[in-house]
Structure formats: structure tokens, C-alpha cells
């Protein structure tokens, strides 16, 4: 890994492979960003990651208004791992859905699954937009991993297909108890966190969730949290108890 | 308390005292909201709270376009307590500062203190706007308590004046360890959580914070969190370990 070299100020996600001797042609958006918006040029340093090969320090070797080439110089951070945690959430208003996706990327979720519940006011979910938000969050938070955003699916279908080895943390407003439901759980298993819509789960959904052998209801306190707040709070408790925070 | 009566669909914060037999004159904004926006009228139910007297079910007894009167019918929720937790944060961009304040109200902070650190790009902080955000968050989250937003103060001045009985959770990116720094801490003490600016604390600030006998550095994992994410995550860990979630 690179030692004392100055860290690149700009950090971008690319699709291409990264490695010693590798050159990376830039698409039009990235070229515009680096050379017009950021006013960078040949010789300037850019950090790149692709979600697989770690973070590489690269140098601009060609710069045009609409194209350019970066050359890999050395690994600046090893490929990071995130715990096997999915965040499943019922889509809400656009700005808050964007926020949930951004936060899931920052908090280290491996996969993000929009789910349609009985009380979901499902505006159309644009998976490509949400995926772009994940990339942006990863660029910002210094992570080398970009979570995958799945196509929206109905809660019933998701549960019918569930791998029972994956534990499910389900936030239940009717409970008291904080994260105590997570203590005594064996670490190292795959997990998912399920956040309901603003209107909560229906009686039927709640009953079904509670009956699942892999479900762990957890309380997030006596106040009603918005879905976006609940998502961050639940991921924090999970990372702290079972993930890579401790 | 009221039993089986239907819960009011609209919930508002007012300044006036609430209690049995009390009538509450509406200001122009509230009258406009109830009678024009929500199209309510005489006989409709509204839930009111003022941060002191619990939540009251009231009924519209006079409705004009620009004024109106509500009459208290009965207590619908007792006055809630929040733990003695302050959230201290360095103001960031407007939208994210608004967000931090909203989340602090939802997560049950008692007081919110904007603080100016060495690396704070201090845009002007409008305390009245932030206070209005707190009120809105409390209206939404069903809480009866509205945290107070303090005037911004420099970190040095805040620490010089600090009551050493108040413990300080300070989020330190250079640490590992999750919430383990909080285990073994006696519950029931006053606390504060300090969230640094996007650029982090300066070396001097970090040194000073670490030397404080009441400071408890806590890690929020291996990824860099934005200040708004860190605020929610830190409050979640605190509420879960030492607050009213468990």
C-alpha cells in the first residue's frame, strides 16, 4: 500500500478493473467533473475504487474536456468487507428514501431491498437512481464497498422465499427492551433489518413476522421514529452488537 | 386519561397552558392550517401539547378563517420525560443541520447545542428556525417534550464552563470499540453527546477532549460517517445503553 504520499482529494467509483499497471479511461461525466468542475489536469491524483479491487491512487495521464485517462499508481486502501447485513425497508417519500439508501451505504449494509408492505404508499421506486445514491455515499464515506440495491418485492414474496439461516431484526413499536433481543445471539450469521412504512405493519404482517423462527423483534424506544431515523438507529444497534463496530 | 375515544388525527404544539376546562385560542397560522388546509371545523378533534402539561384531546368550538378556539376535553397522553441527554454538534450545511435537529427531537435529546469548532464552516445558525424544526419533529413523532435549541457557542467556552458531573460521549474516528466505552458507566447521570464537524476535530481539540475526566471516547465503526448519520447512530447507542430504550 502507499505510504506517505499525499491522499487524493477526489474519490470516484468506476466499473473498470483496478490494479498495478492498469489504465482507466474516463466516461464523459467523470471527465467533466474532474477537468471542468474540479479544474484538475495531467499529473493530479484521483482515488478510484470499484467495489472489488480496493482503493487505488491514480494519476491523470490524459485530460480532455470530454474524456481522459487515469493510471493506477498503487493501492491506497485494501478492499473492505462489510458484514452480511441486508437493510429491507418500505419506500417512503422520495427524499427520505434517498436518505435511507445513503445511510445504509454509510452504515455498512451489504444489500438494500425495497419491500412493499400493506401500508406502503408505493411511489415507483427507481432502482437505478437509488443505486447511484449508494455509489455517491460510498465515494463520500471512504468505503470501498458499494451495496447492491435490489428490485422492489412484496413482503409476502420476500418471506416466502427466505433463507431461514438469515436472521431478521424486525423493529416492533409495541415492544420495550432495546437491543436486549440481540444479546445472546451468535455472531457471524447473515442478518437482515426490516423497517416498516410510516403507517407501521398491518396486524396480519405483524403476526406473521412474530411467528417466524428467525425473527428477532427489537424496540427502538418509547418515541415514534420516522422510518429513516429507525433505519439508522437499527443499523447502529446491530453494528454495535453483532457487526464490525466492536 | 381518555380511553376508547378516537385519537385526533392532527397534533399541534401550542404555548398556552393545557388542562381540564381550559380553552385555547388559535393563532393565525394554526387556524389557517386547521380550517383551510385540513378543512376541519367545529366539533373536530385536535391533539395539543405544550411540552409541560402532557397531550390533550381538544375539540374545535369556534372556527373562522383566521382564528378559532379549541376546548380541552381530557388528557390523551401524560407529559413524557426524556433522559438528561444533550446533543452538541458543529453546524454543517443547512439541510443536514435541520436534519440533525429533527433527529435529536425524535431520538429524545433534552437540549440541542450548536457548537463552533476549529474546523466548523460556520454558516450563521438561526436558532429560531432550528427551534421550529424541533417543534415540527415533536408534532410528528408523538412526543410531548420539545428539546430546547441553545445559542451557538465556541467549543472552548463550552468546555471551560462544563459541569463535570455531566458525562460527555465524544465520537472519535481514530478508535475501535463500539459502545464498549459506555459499559460499566453508572446510569442516571446527566450526559452529552458531541459530534464533530465534517472535517473532524483539530489535533488540539482532540487532545483537550481526551484529557477531560468526564469524556468517554466512543467509536462508530470503521467507515467515515457524515455528521448527521453519526448523530443518530450515537444517540441510538446511548439510548440503548443508558437511556430509556432498555
UniProtKB/TrEMBL annotation, chains A, B:
Residues 26-66 form the Ribosomal RNA small subunit methyltransferase E PUA-like domain. It is found in: Cytoplasm. Residues 83-239 form the Ribosomal RNA small subunit methyltransferase E methyltransferase domain. The keyword Phosphoprotein does not apply. CDD domains: RsmE-like. Keywords: Cytoplasm, Methyltransferase, rRNA processing, S-adenosyl-L-methionine, Transferase. GO terms for cellular component: cytoplasm. It catalyses: uridine(1498) in 16S rRNA + S-adenosyl-L-methionine = N(3)-methyluridine(1498) in 16S rRNA + S-adenosyl-L-homocysteine + H(+). InterPro entries: Alpha/beta_knot_MTases, PUA-like_sf, RsmE, RsmE_MTase_dom, RsmE_PUA-like, tRNA_m1G_MTases_N. Its main location: cytoplasm. The keyword Methyltransferase applies. GO terms for biological process: rRNA base methylation. One of its GO terms (molecular function) is rRNA (uridine-N3-)-methyltransferase activity. Its EC number is 2.1.1.193. PANTHER family: 16S RRNA (URACIL(1498)-N(3))-METHYLTRANSFERASE, RIBOSOMAL RNA SMALL SUBUNIT METHYLTRANSFERASE E. Belongs to the RNA methyltransferase RsmE family. Specifically methylates the N3 position of the uracil ring of uridine 1498 (m3U1498) in 16S rRNA. Acts on the fully assembled 30S ribosomal subunit. This is Ribosomal RNA small subunit methyltransferase E.
Amino acid at each position: 500500500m502507499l505510504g506517505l504520499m499525499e491522499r487524493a482529494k477526489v474519490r470516484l467509483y468506476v466499473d473498470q478493473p483496478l490494479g498495478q499497471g492498469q489504465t482507466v479511461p474516463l466516461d464523459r461525466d467523470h471527465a467533466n467533473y474532474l477537468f471542468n468542475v474540479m479544474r484538475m489536469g495531467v499529473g493530479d491524483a484521483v482515488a478510484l475504487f470499484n467495489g472489488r479491487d480496493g482503493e487505488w491512487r491514480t494519476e491523470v495521464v490524459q485530460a480532455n474536456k470530454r474524456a481522459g485517462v487515469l493510471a493506477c499508481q498503487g493501492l491506497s486502501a485494501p478492499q473492505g468487507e462489510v458484514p452480511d447485513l441486508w437493510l429491507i425497508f418500505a419506500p417512503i417519500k422520495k427524499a427520505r428514501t434517498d436518505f435511507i439508501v445513503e445511510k445504509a451505504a454509510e452504515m455498512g449494509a451489504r444489500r438494500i431491498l425495497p419491500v412493499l408492505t400493506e401500508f406502503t404508499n408505493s411511489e415507483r421506486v427507481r432502482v437505478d437512481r437509488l443505486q447511484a445514491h449508494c455509489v455517491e455515499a460510498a465515494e463520500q464515506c471512504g468505503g470501498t464497498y458499494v451495496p447492491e440495491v435490489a428490485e422492489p418485492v412484496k413482503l409476502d414474496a420476500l418471506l416466502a422465499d427466505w433463507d431461514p439461516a438469515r436472521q431478521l431484526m424486525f423493529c416492533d413499536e409495541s415492544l420495550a427492551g432495546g437491543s436486549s433481543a440481540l444479546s445472546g445471539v451468535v455472531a457471524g450469521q447473515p442478518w437482515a433489518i426490516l423497517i416498516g412504512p410510516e403507517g407501521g405493519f398491518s396486524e396480519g404482517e405483524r403476526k406473521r413476522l412474530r411467528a417466524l423462527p428467525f425473527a428477532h423483534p427489537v424496540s427502538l424506544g418509547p418515541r415514534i421514529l420516522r422510518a429513516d431515523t429507525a433505519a439508522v438507529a437499527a443499523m447502529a444497534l446491530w453494528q454495535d452488537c453483532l457487526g464490525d463496530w466492536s
